[in-house]
Design a protein that fits this description.
The complex is a heterodimer of chains A (113) and B (111).
Chain A: E1 5-7, E2 10-13, E3 19-24, E4 31-37, E5 44-50, E6 53-56, E7 65-68, E8 75-79, E9 88-95, E10 103-104, E11 108-112
Parallel strand pairs in A: 2-11
Antiparallel strand pairs in A: 1-3, 3-8, 4-5, 4-9, 5-6, 7-8, 9-10, 9-11
Chain B: E1 9-13, E2 18-23, E3 31-38, E4 45-50, E5 55-56, E6 61-64, E7 70-75, E8 84-92, E9 105-110
Parallel strand pairs in B: 1-9
Antiparallel strand pairs in B: 2-7, 3-4, 3-8, 5-6, 6-7, 8-9
Chain lengths: 113, 111
C-alpha cells in the first residue's frame, strides 16, 4: 500500500469547473512532486517543491494550473478552468531529498465531461 | 538526461526469472540507472537503482554492463503480481531529481 496519501481517488467534473487534488507526502520528505499521466503514457512532471519552494514548474500550464505547499508538508494542485484535455491520472510523489528515490501515491483519476 | 530504450512488451512464466533489458547508450558518467514499475491503477513503485556496480535488494537485481550502456533488471522468481509496466530511467542524482519516464516494458507473467 502506498504511503503517500492522495485524495480524492477519482474525480469527475465538467469542463470549465475548478478541481483540486490533495497530497500528503511521507513524513519528513522534503521534496514533493506532482506528475500527470495520460492513459498509455509514462508520468510527466508538472511541478517540484523543495520544502515550501517551487524548484521546477517549467511544464506546469500556469494559465490554468496552480500548486502550493504552504507549510512544506502537504500540497494542493488546482486546475481552473478544467478542459477536456486535462483528463488524466494526477500522481504525487515524495522523496527524502532531491536525488533520493521517489515514492508515489496511487493518484487521482480525473475525468472531464 | 539520457534516453532509454526498452522492449514494448515481454512475457514470463510464473516461477521463472524475468530479465528486463534496457539500453542507455548515451548515459553520462554521473547518471544513475533507476527502475520503477507500475501495476494497473496504482502509482509507480521504486524498485532499485545503481551507478556502476550490480545491485540487489529484496525485490530484484540490477545488472549494469561494464561500459554502462545497458542494464538488465532481474526478478528472480516472477509471480502473477509482478505483471506491470516496468520503467528504466537514467538520472543525475545531484541535480533536481526529476524522473523522465519513457513508454516502459509491459511484463505479463503467465501461469
Amino acid at each position: 500500500e502506498a504511503e503517500v496519501a492522495q485524495s480524492p481517488r477519482y474525480k469527475i467534473t465538467e469542463k470549465s469547473q475548478a478541481v483540486a487534488f490533495w497530497c500528503d507526502p511521507i513524513s519528513g520528505h522534503a521534496t514533493l512532486y506532482w506528475y500527470r499521466q495520460i492513459l498509455g503514457q509514462g508520468p510527466e512532471l508538472l511541478v517540484q517543491f523543495q520544502d515550501e519552494s517551487v524548484v521546477d514548474d517549467s511544464q506546469l500550464p500556469k494559465d490554468r494550473f496552480s500548486a502550493e505547499r504552504l507549510k512544506g508538508v502537504d500540497s494542493t494542485l488546482k486546475i481552473q478552468p478544467a478542459e477536456l484535455g486535462d483528463s488524466a491520472m494526477y500522481l504525487c510523489a515524495s522523496s527524502l531529498d532531491r536525488g533520493q528515490p521517489q515514492h508515489f501515491g496511487d493518484g487521482t483519476r480525473l475525468s472531464i465531461l | 538526461d539520457a534516453k532509454t530504450t526498452q522492449p514494448t512488451s515481454m512475457d514470463c512464466a510464473e516461477g521463472r526469472a524475468a530479465n528486463l533489458p534496457c539500453n542507455h547508450s548515451t548515459i553520462s558518467g554521473n547518471e544513475y540507472v533507476y527502475w520503477y514499475r507500475q501495476i494497473h491503477s496504482q502509482g509507480p513503485q521504486y524498485i532499485i537503482h545503481g551507478l556502476k556496480n550490480n545491485e540487489t535488494n529484496e525485490m530484484a537485481s540490477l545488472i549494469i554492463t561494464e561500459d554502462r550502456k545497458s542494464s538488465t533488471l532481474i526478478l528472480p522468481h516472477a509471480t502473477l503480481r509482478d505483471t506491470a509496466v516496468y520503467y528504466c530511467i537514467v538520472r543525475v542524482d545531484n541535480q533536481g531529481g526529476k524522473l523522465i519516464f519513457g513508454q516502459g516494458t509491459e511484463l505479463s507473467v503467465k501461469p
